[in-house]
Amino acid sequence: MTKPLTKDDYTPGGVTLHHDPDRLRRVTRALRAAGRNIALVPTMGALHEGHRKLIREAHVLQNTVVVVSIFVNPTQFGPNEDFERYPRTLEADVEVCREERVGLVFAPGVEDMYPAGGQVTVAPGPLGEQLEGATRPGHFAGVLTVVAKLLNIVQPNYALFGEKDYQQLTLIRRMVRDLNLPVDVVGVPTVREADGLALSSRNRYLSEDERAAATALSAALVAGAHVSGQGADAVLKAARDTLAAVPEVDLDYLELRAPDLGPAPENGDGRLLVAARVGTTRLIDNAPVLLGAGDE
Ligand code: PAF
């Protein structure tokens, strides 16, 4: 039987912080039993405008209580990546959630999420080894496993993810379909600074010069999209030339794919994806392109 909620579990109009997965599951179950929809916004914290946009989109969905999870998931970081130095700003994040009328914040510790170590994982399949997965082995197994766990804990009607991590979004959609998970995945367009830089918690690692150089990524996507009517080769050349003009940008990959990240079509919708290192910071970005649709 669903236990009645107390003010310590959930306060309408306020934000309640939870750490314990079982308790949170009881709260979201009771809210669903009371006729509310649950919208989950999974994050690793250090919340910025991009996360605010996800939360705002969650509020647009009907009759929802918004749950934001904040968990820097160790299993998606490689041994030489930034797990230790990844920003952890829980107090400020809860304040952002309060401002954005989030109902529940779920901020578990590593021991709450992986009490037994976590030997069983979700295998992302071939797409998990391409693009980001080629440079970050094991990354997407870590992401999909923690997202599956969060979905099982929160049991939301909706889960919202940014298009900024386009391969992540694509693999999560695929996992939900392949494993018959009962949730609607909602993708939300990337939020950008005025100069085009895609918002990311990792932007704070950039020095002033690196920050300026980093705009080459979004500029390359714009340059590529601008000649999309001329086909794939023209798109890739324009984007590559833009990146090559900025020596601080150490390109990892620039690829044109279909929207589901299969091979790009000759005509029609495509997705242009870029990853590069600027200083010690690895950045990614992507944009839609309409291939062969005109003769610009
Ligand atoms: O995009 C992120 O912030 C993370 O990869 C996610 C989806 C919260 C899983 O840890």
UniProtKB/TrEMBL annotation:
Compartments it resides in? Cytoplasm
Q: Pathway involvement?
A: Cofactor biosynthesis; (R)-pantothenate biosynthesis; (R)-pantothenate from (R)-pantoate and beta-alanine: step 1/1
A GO molecular function for this record?
pantoate-beta-alanine ligase activity
Q: Which reaction does it catalyse?
A: (R)-pantoate + beta-alanine + ATP = (R)-pantothenate + AMP + diphosphate + H(+)
Per the record, the domain of life is Bacteria
Please give the SUPFAM superfamilies that the UniProt record associates with this protein: Nucleotidylyl transferase
Q: Where does ATP bind?
A: 44-51, 162-165, 191, 199-202
| EC category | ligase
Query: What keywords appear on the UniProt entry?
Result: ATP-binding, Cytoplasm, Ligase, Nucleotide-binding, Pantothenate biosynthesis
Q: What Enzyme Commission number(s) appear in the record?
A: 6.3.2.1
Residues bound to (R)-pantoate? Q76, Q168
What GO terms fall under cellular component here? cytosol
Principal subcellular localization = cytoplasm
Positions of the catalytic residues: H51
One Pfam entry name = Pantoate_ligase
Matching InterPro entries, A to Z?
Pantoate_ligase, Pantoate_ligase_C, Rossmann-like_a/b/a_fold
What functional role does this protein have? Answer: Catalyzes the condensation of pantoate with beta-alanine in an ATP-dependent reaction via a pantoyl-adenylate intermediate.
User: Which family, according to UniProt?
Assistant: Belongs to the pantothenate synthetase family.
Whom does it interact with, and what assembly results? Homodimer.
**What else is on record for this protein?**
The reaction proceeds by a bi uni uni bi ping pong mechanism.
Q: What is this protein called?
A: Pantothenate synthetase
Q: Which organism is it from?
A: Saccharothrix coeruleofusca
Gene field: panC
